[in-house]
Amino acid sequence: MNRAANILATKNCSDRADPLLSVRAIEKRFRTKSGDEVHALNSVSVDLADGEFVSVLGPSGCGKTTLLKILAGIVPPSDGTLLLRNAPIVGPQAGMGVVFQSSVLLPWWTVLENVLLPIRVLKRDLAQHREKARELLALVGLQGFESSYPGELSGGMQQRAAIVRGLIHDPGILLMDEPFGALDAMTRERMNVELQRIWMSTGKTVFFITHSVSEAVFLSDRVLVMSKRPGTLIDDIKVPFPRPRNVDLMSTAEFGDLTRHLRHALGGGEATHD
Amino acid sequence: MTKIATARPRRGISPAIAVLTSVGVGLLIWQSAVSLAEIPSYVLPAPKAVWAALIDGLARSPTERASFWFHLIDTLKATVSGFAIGAVLGVVFAACMAESRLVETAALPYVVGLQSLPKVAIAPLLVIWLGYGTESKIAMAAVLTLFPVLINALAGFRSSPRDRLELMIALKASRFQVFRFIRLPGALPMIFAGLNIGIVYAMLGTIVSEFTGAQRGMGVIMTQMQSVSDTAGVFAALVVLGCTGYVLISIMRLAQHYVVFWSESTLREIAQ
Predict the structure, then answer these.
(1) What integer pLDDT is reported at residue B267 of this predicted model?
(2) Which residues of A touch B179 (CB under 8 A)?
(3) Using alpha carbons only, what angle is made at residue B222 by residues B218 and B224, rounded to the nearest 5 degrees?
(4) How many beta-carbon contacts under 8 Å exist across A and B?
(5) What ipTM was estimated for this complex?
(6) For residue A110, what is the nearest residue in chain B, using CA coordinates?
């Protein structure tokens, strides 16, 4: 509880403080194989404060994933700059962890080996992080599955392992690209509650892509709305509900008002579900 | 309401009995064809004669030239060494081609050219270059192993899913790390598919090389038996080669289950 209050407090001050990550006028154009030029992102600017949970909502194909890949350094922007603590960054950063739509666990490694991949790649101390990996796996409810292979886990458990892999090298920012999109509705709801708990106990800044309005509202401090292609941010809404939130929140009138507002911002709610 | 099909206990004979019966009937037909149609033994020897030749060849001391063991050991040595060399070269070449466009472009005319060539046809050339010893046999086995391994490994290295590569990019992984952690393990199921073909080809290459010219080996004893019309002996040698091939393939399968136990195709095989 205290933790939650702290995070909220930090968030409120951070409106004035320097942002952790600044996205300044990001543009993305690319050519398809048939030679057509696609304008994917149009001058996207946003600031992420330390410890903030920010979601991006948008219709399919609006460039949300492209934006996340630009932040992760996986694809370069055509124009614009990224500032991490006011310093410009180019390419991938060890200060960021990524969780993809699918878990992308390597089937030839155990869960423990999989979550230690960033440590191996970044050449940090394996022995020291093994303990940390066990703790994080316990935090997401995967204790006892350290030596299991990904193929032996359910979809929800695989995504939990992927979240641990995103957190293991202690990045300041966790980028999540529709991490629960492939899960069934009930598992997804449970994972949302879990993610809130993980976020509150780790204090990370989370940049969360989704096309589910209720998921975005339930999890976020702020919800950004993206337009159809060329994607640009058309709305930025603060979510005032106190933490920790539980699933009952979703049936309150205030929650309904907010989701309704967001559906309108998205354009009549045509491209969303839940 | 649809009728639900339930699993019903399978009636009838067990597979083991079916196999034994099938082999028994086959041998019976063979034996009766030989005795009833009076086929000369140099055309088709009776099963009993083949059995006698087999026992004779196997019972002799491995130091005797008429012993199957004397020749089989040499054939096996060449097959296994040639297979090992061809497999390693195949994987290394494939890795170089997958990692470098330049290497791939440079190697392509040779790969395409050699692929359309019936490679056993170079056996006489190898004998000229390397002589009648084991070297020419090893070389032939290696050449035949190389191609299926190369082609499969190349496809394997290329087939890394995009999201795995993006995961590595986001971690700023070096090219070597991507190869070591993603491409190589990901290619192992395909590499094993190549190795399974390769081991059969390695033995084929060795035997062909022994036909062309060698001092020892199953191919040598078979040409000797052929020259004295010892057809039963040739049949017995074929039985020996068949069993050896079966053992080699089984070892490969075992290695595959041990190394790529996680691969979907392997899991399917285990489940069956």
Answers:
(1) 58
(2) none
(3) 120
(4) 55
(5) 0.85
(6) B262
